[in-house]
Amino acid sequence: MPSDFxxxxxxxxxxxxxxxxxxxxxxxxxxxxxxKSVEHxxxxxxxxxxxxxxxxxxxxxxxxxxxxSAQRDRVASFQQKKLEAAEILLRARFVLSQMGMLxxxxxxxxxxxxxxxxxxxxxxxxxxxxxxxxxxxxxxxxGHIDKTLPQLYLGQKSLDAFNVYEAIVMQAIxxxxxxxxxxxxxxxxxxxxxxxxxxxxxxxxxxxxFEKFGDRYAYYWANYFHDEILKALRHEVSGLDEVERDxxxxxxxxxxxxxxxxRARISIKQAGLSDQLINTIEQVDEPTLG
Length: 290
Prior knowledge:
Blueprint: H1 2-25, H2 27-97, H3 101-108, H4 111-116, H5 120-130, H6 135-143, H7 148-153, H8 156-179, H9 195-202, H10 207-213, H11 222-238, H12 243-270
Helix pairs in contact: 2-8, 2-11, 3-8, 3-12, 8-9, 8-11, 11-12
């Protein structure tokens, strides 16, 4: 039994020694083999990593291309919506302008005296003046215009000019409708708003006129804001201004204004009504585009 153990122990030492001698003799070859094996595995992993980077770069290029295309589409879509919004606002402006002569009539009437008058001829004259304008039909048509897009896509300058122009025309419509009613105490139906303040906010130079002529001076700014809407929209959509066209528009509106005021005065005189219902032809400078 002891001899078997000794033989086993000797064989173990011999085997271990033999392995050690073999490893020592072939140490360089084994080292080179292990080095190459590690390098090969590293190169494979490095190539896989590089491939993943290239795929990632390709994905990034696709993302960049998509974002660039999407940005162009958004800009194009925004511009299209802005153009549609401008067209809607111009359509609304056109409907209001069809009743713009009522503003010119209001320049001619002495508002307080007309409201206090009990003469039924006053209402009859006003009824004849406003009849051709088909106010109810035009207001119905105007109410069908959806102004959501302008509110979403147009600049504040365009919207402010439109809102003041709308307020001036609507004020004139309301007053002329009240004038046309054969009713005593019509002045009690009037509720004064802040139209004058709105005009002065956008046109500070109007302050002196309001101090001199009162609230009715707002009517003299209707043509200004009518043209200012187009000017603001043209600049917003195309970035261009056309001074010559604006000047011609102002001249045309000034002529129409004088004609309307003369018509109101003539109608009052033909009806044999008092001159106290009509404003004297004072010199009031019509505001123009700056």
